[in-house]
Backbone:
């Protein structure tokens, strides 16, 4: 999956936040959630300075919010965005997942998630392995999304270290 066109109006240095839904979103939930977040973005400020932002939904499961401004976005500015996302999720009937869950793509392309302990059992049993595509909800910048660092084989992700998967040779 290519993310090169994601949020094209923002620079690669734009900061990214990833919110994952517990389950895949239907069309109505996607429209409602994205609509709520997109209506917040033009009003988004940090210490009375405008934040330039955008949002997108990926894989029917991940809400990506990206933003940039001159200087750093304050904690209060970030908090206001997080509140807007949570309000939108509540209004659209979307349950947001814990960021501590592991998200991966099954062989048939379905996005699944489990708590880390349950995912570790899948690793030990061989159900998932080095080539399993995992999602990194911690990508810091839009350039990382565009470079394919959001979804990649487990062997090239932080997941390899945490779940003791053989890593790619340098």
Residues:
């Amino acid at each position: 999956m290519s993310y090169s066109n994601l949020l094209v109006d923002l620079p690669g240095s734009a900061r990214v936040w990833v919110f994952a839904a517990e389950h895949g979103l239907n069309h109505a939930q996607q429209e409602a959630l994205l609509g709520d977040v997109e209506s917040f973005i033009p009003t988004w400020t940090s210490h009375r300075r405008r934040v330039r932002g955008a949002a997108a939904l990926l894989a029917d499961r991940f809400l990506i919010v990206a933003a940039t401004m001159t200087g750093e976005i304050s904690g209060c500015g970030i908090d206001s965005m997080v509140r807007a996302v949570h309000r939108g999720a509540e209004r659209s009937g979307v349950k947001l997942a814990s960021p501590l869950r592991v998200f991966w793509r099954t062989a048939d392309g379905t996005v699944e998630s489990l708590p880390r302990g349950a995912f570790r059992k899948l690793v030990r049993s061989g159900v998932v392995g080095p080539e399993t595509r995992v999602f990194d909800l911690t990508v810091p910048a839009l350039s990382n999304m565009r470079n394919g660092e959001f979804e990649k084989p487990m062997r090239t992700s932080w997941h390899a270290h945490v779940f003791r998967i053989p890593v790619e040779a340098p």
